[in-house]
Amino acid sequence: MRWTGRPPSALRGRPDILASSSASRRSAGGSYPCPPWTRIRRCGTGRCGMSCDGRTAAAPAGPTVAALAALGPAVGPIRDEARSQGVDFVRRLFEEWASGANRFDRPGEIFLGVWRGDRLVGVGGLNRDPYAAGGDIGRVRHVYLLGAHRHLGLGTLLVTRLLREAEGHFRIVRLRAASPEAAAFYRRLGFAECADPAATHLIRVRPIP
């Protein structure tokens, strides 16, 4: 599915369709650091960290979720807010990306961004769980939304998409909730508490074929 400007009217407000092509992008070895509705023209804003051609496209009205290939300038507000609040896992995200230790680029992995218009307001990733012995366990990591954009359903949109991406790659997805509020959020999404030193919650996903 490709377009050069604003998505067709039938797709506006449909982030599930706008961002549904990530599986094909992964199989083709590609992903988009630009807002996802700028498929061919890219964003033209310089915020994506790539060299854009300067032709901007109108953003869709609703939020969109799309794969991020780089931690470009658009992620700066997330880094700065998390730093001011002492959120350590966002610091680790940037450090591990810079060092190459974790760029969510192994089979089954993906790093997603949540966009509202042309602004990146949240991020989250799916790794092979580095604390599990088997390769069939995934891990949701580094989920963060800007404070002004919480309690709007965007976190649910992001994590639900991560779980959909996990289908066919992993059998179980685990995570460590950083706070009681985060724990309650993941329970509402169907995660169960687990007694494991390396995780607080887990959920089963569609098994590997």
TrEMBL record:
<dbReference type="Pfam" id="PF00583">
    <property type="entry name" value="Acetyltransf_1"/>
</dbReference>
<dbReference type="InterPro" id="IPR016181">
    <property type="entry name" value="Acyl_CoA_acyltransferase"/>
</dbReference>
<feature type="domain" description="N-acetyltransferase">
    <location>
        <begin position="73"/>
        <end position="209"/>
    </location>
</feature>
<dbReference type="GO" id="GO:0016747">
    <property type="term" value="F:acyltransferase activity, transferring groups other than amino-acyl groups"/>
</dbReference>
<feature type="region of interest" description="Disordered">
    <location>
        <begin position="1"/>
        <end position="31"/>
    </location>
</feature>
<protein>
    <submittedName>
        <fullName>GNAT family N-acetyltransferase</fullName>
    </submittedName>
</protein>
<feature type="compositionally biased region" description="Low complexity">
    <location>
        <begin position="19"/>
        <end position="31"/>
    </location>
</feature>
<keyword id="KW-0808">Transferase</keyword>
<dbReference type="InterPro" id="IPR000182">
    <property type="entry name" value="GNAT_dom"/>
</dbReference>
